[in-house]
Amino acid sequence: MPFLGLIKMANLLEYVGNIHIFLGPYRGNPIALYLRRNGSTCQIGPKVYPWNDVVGEGETPNRAAADFEEKWKGRGLSPDLYTGPHWEGGIKPEKPAPPKPAAAPKSAAAPASPTAAPAVAIAPKESNKSDGESG
Q1: Which of the given ranges, 44-48, 88-92, 109-113, has the highest pLDDT on average?
Q2: What SS3 state is found at 30?
Q3: pLDDT digits (tens, 9 = 90+) for 78-104
């Protein structure tokens, strides 16, 4: 059989963690989470129906894990029905940095120079009639 050219290998899945779902009073099975790398993007998600529609995407595995956690929590499952996700292999969800607050405008009432001495008002001296001065 002749060689037909370069054979592209399919992207392999990497096991990165699991979620354990409880089915009512019974203990359910853990659902495996897999990482797929496609060029510059990473995708994390389960491959088991009905949970396989939740897929986290990001530039790095950690960002994909954070995206997966957000989407999983947005699914509407009560937190007492599952535990996890439990991450393996050094995966730590990387949350996006919160937006920086806008810089407060400088007020016009601020002193012009920090070296200027503050003005101190001196109270007038009260006259004391016991000194014998007439006034």
Answers
A1: 44-48
A2: strand
A3: 888 888 888 887 888 887 666 667 666
Q: What is the per-residue pLDDT for 33?
A: 92
Quickly tell me which residue has 């998600």 as its tokens. Answer: 45
Hey, CA dihedral for 62, 15, 79, 56, is it positive or negative? positive
DSSP line for 62-73: HHHHHHHHHHHH
Q: Are the CB atoms for 71 and 12 separated by under 8 Å?
A: no
List % helix, strand, coil for the chain (3-state, nearest 5): 15, 30, 60
3-state secondary structure of 37: strand
Rounded to the nearest integer, the mean pLDDT of the chain is 76
Dist. CA 98–CA 103, nearest whole Å: 15
Contacting residues for 1 by C-beta, under 8 A, at least 6 apart: none
Q: Which amino acid is at 73?
A: K
Q: What is the CA radius of gyration of the chain?
A: 34
Residue 95 carries which DSSP code?
P
Confidence (pTM) = 0.61
